[in-house]
Write a structure and sequence with these properties.
Length: 327
């Protein structure tokens, strides 16, 4: 009886602190880039509206409150909350368009209602992950979340929305996922993630050198930039990719193939393949090979701990190290 209020209190505290930091960051960014208020305010408001929904999968108390209302209510809330930020920024800035809106509505409704309509089974789970991959790889959000000014890219809003909508659909509508969408690793998960990061370094370093991908920055990122980069990667990129690739796909592959090694290898290859279009070149085989190697060690971290949070530490450390020293 006391755990729920405490958990809800933590959610509110994180939400308040996050809103304050995001609001300050948006103001500083708009001033630095010279973004006019008529564009900055609606875009910032849309991100601030999205933020509490991104937090939802990581806190138990909101889960319990939503679960009490039933799965149909949850699916409706997920759909409505997914399109709300789009309205908030698109209408005031003149970027609203019926066709992109309908595409967005179809995507969010499909993700939200997927497991309300279909049973949790091999085919439906595989198709669900394929749907998410197709949306991301086709860069659909680049054509939906159109920027009101050339120097402001906001398609990341769609990616953040898709992450939390799909995570909630898995955790609460489907259920029995046997994984967590949690932001803060515990002590053992930190240690496991660091250990596999250290194991990955010589293999990744050799692969980068052998494939000719090494290109040093003129100057490394400063400590403040490095810390910000690490936590940004940890709580968005690493958390989302590890949740879906290791927490779901690798786990499900173990069950489908009855082999943890086969699941590890296949998931790593698919993880690398998902990055074929990165850095403006397709197919970027050299980069995909390095990512697959990294994914193998992320998978080992998950396999060792059965924890997404351990593999996301390995993931975040790897990407942060790259961004500090390399282009």
């Amino acid at each position: 009886m006391t755990a729920m209020p405490n958990s809800l209190g933590r959610f509110r505290a994180v939400l308040g602190a996050g809103w304050a930091l995001l609001g300050l960051g948006a103001w500083i960014y708009a001033r630095m880039k010279g973004i006019p208020e008529w564009a900055a305010l609606p875009v910032a408001a849309a991100f601030l509206i999205e933020f509490p929904f991104y937090l939802l999968p990581g806190f138990e108390a909101p889960h319990v409150a939503l679960a009490a209302r039933g799965k149909m209510f949850l699916a409706c809330i997920l759909t409505a909350s997914a399109i709300a930020p789009y309205f908030v920024y698109a209408l005031p800035t003149g970027q609203f368009s019926p066709i992109p809106f309908l595409v967005l509505l179809m995507i969010t409704a499909a993700v939200s209602f997927w497991y309300l309509v279909l049973p949790a089974a091999f085919a439906t789970d595989a198709l669900f992950l394929l749907l998410l991959a197709a949306v991301v790889l086709a860069k659909v959000f680049d054509r939906i979340y159109l920027s009101p000014i050339p120097r402001l890219s906001i398609s990341v809003m769609g990616h953040i929305m898709l992450i939390r909508t799909a995570a909630m659909a898995i955790l609460m509508v489907r259920g029995n996922a046997r994984t967590e969408f949690r932001f803060v690793p515990n002590r053992d998960e930190w240690l496991t993630g660091i250990r596999y990061f250290a194991m990955l370094l010589p293999f990744a370093g050799f692969a980068f050198w052998a494939l000719g991908l090494v290109s040093l920055r003129a100057a490394p990122l400063n400590p403040l930039q490095s810390i910000g980069t690490f936590f940004g990667i940890l709580w968005v990129v690493a958390l989302s990719e590890e949740f879906f690739f290791r927490g779901l796909l690798q786990q499900w592959m173990e069950r489908w193939t009855s082999s943890s090694i086969a699941a590890l290898i296949v998931t790593s290859i698919l993880f690398g393949s998902a990055h074929l279009g990165y850095h403006g070149t397709f197919p970027n085989w050299r980069f995909a090979i390095v990512v697959a190697i990294a994914g193998f060690f992320y998978g080992l971290a998950w396999k060792s701990s059965r924890s997404v949070q351990a593999s996301m530490v390995t993931h975040a450390l790897t990407v942060t190290l790259w961004r500090i020293f390399f282009q």
